[in-house]
Amino acid sequence: MSGDATDSEAEGESTYPDVCVVTHPLGGAGENATRTLLEILSAITTISLVTAGLPEGSTIREDHEVVELTTANTGESIPVAAARFLLNQFRMCRLLARRDEEVVLFYGAIAYFLPICCAKLAGKTVVLEPRGNVPLTLRLHWEQRVPGPIARGLAGLVWGLERLGYWLSDAIVTYTPSMASSLGLERFEDKLYTNGARYVDTERFTPRGPFRERDHVVGFLGRLDEEKGIRTLAEVAKRLPDDVTFRFIGDGALRGWLESELSDEIAASTVEVTGWIDHDEVPDQLTELQLLVMPSAPTEGLPTTILEAMACGTPVYATPVVGVPDVVKDGETGYLMEDTSDEAIARKIQRIQTSDDLRSMSHRCRTLVEEEYSFEGAVERFAGILDAISQRGMVSGMEKRNTDGTDAVN
Questions:
Q1: N or C: which terminus of the chain has fewer CB atoms within 10 Å of its end residue's CB?
Q2: Which residues form a coiled coil (predicted)?
Q3: What is the residue-wise DSSP string for 205-231?
Q4: Ordered structural domains, the chain, with CATH
């Protein structure tokens, strides 16, 4: 954080507006990403969270002020999901009208058009921070359940709501410049901030021993779902030589199919399927890999798994989607997957494994995360964003406040 901000904190005052974070129903990766954002913001100013469906046992409730609109998620049925989506928006409107925070940050909930309008009418500053390509994610999900034209039409409606939200907002924050470009946000450049904060706990996620001592294990970590390219990776695993083990770390809808499809390889110990693992076990798993392979669809903004792997000194081979190319720099901190056929991926993995670059690349991965994605770096970046917003006069009537709530002398 800048020297001025540090001095202000030392004197017991905050120069930043209070922030209310609004998200869609949380679960799994969404909960982890939201926790990260809340930790960053709470190091800068006073925050609260408005959400729905927060998983039981989530530590977010213990660490931050949380307002839960409902414990129900969006539901399996598309009509039920749509009804809950609309109902939650009305609930959010009523709630936001009564909140005191000067800034409302919609995190991932970019299509929440009604609450965005309500916040604007209440004189609050509206900031939108997408987590990824939600319309594409929903389309891929819906295409498994309804005819393609219907899925595309529904996804198009969500896309339209997002565009309206971007147009109404006072500021837009993305993880990286490539993410902004991928989501088509260049037209909003006058209110666009492309250095949004992400961070990795570099003490927990750290190399465990020399890279040269790692076994010939490559793998995937995440949800075993269609959008993650799991069916392609199954074919890749079949094509790799017997001295290379492919490890699938995680759980999901395709786990049963995967274990059946690769039963012979699992029996021969050339493929491993770990199932669900606790987040505390993730660093150990990532440190055992020589290479993380991520042929994902362009749905996520910047997968946390990629940053965590690099913090562990594990290079990444991933599709160049959304914010990934700003972190996985081809030939420096990993490899970009231009050809996503199983034959091409398998050939590339074999070439990578026989290369002499992996050890030095492992060191560069760790260095990049330490320099750009530490907690301190993330706090400094987001403090700069809030400062820029306030300097532009977006926060109406914003004043410096002491931590006891009294006005400070400027």
A1: C
A2: none
A3: S---S-GGG--SEEEEES--SGGGTHH
A4: 3-199+374-402 (3.40.50.2000), 211-371 (3.40.50.2000)
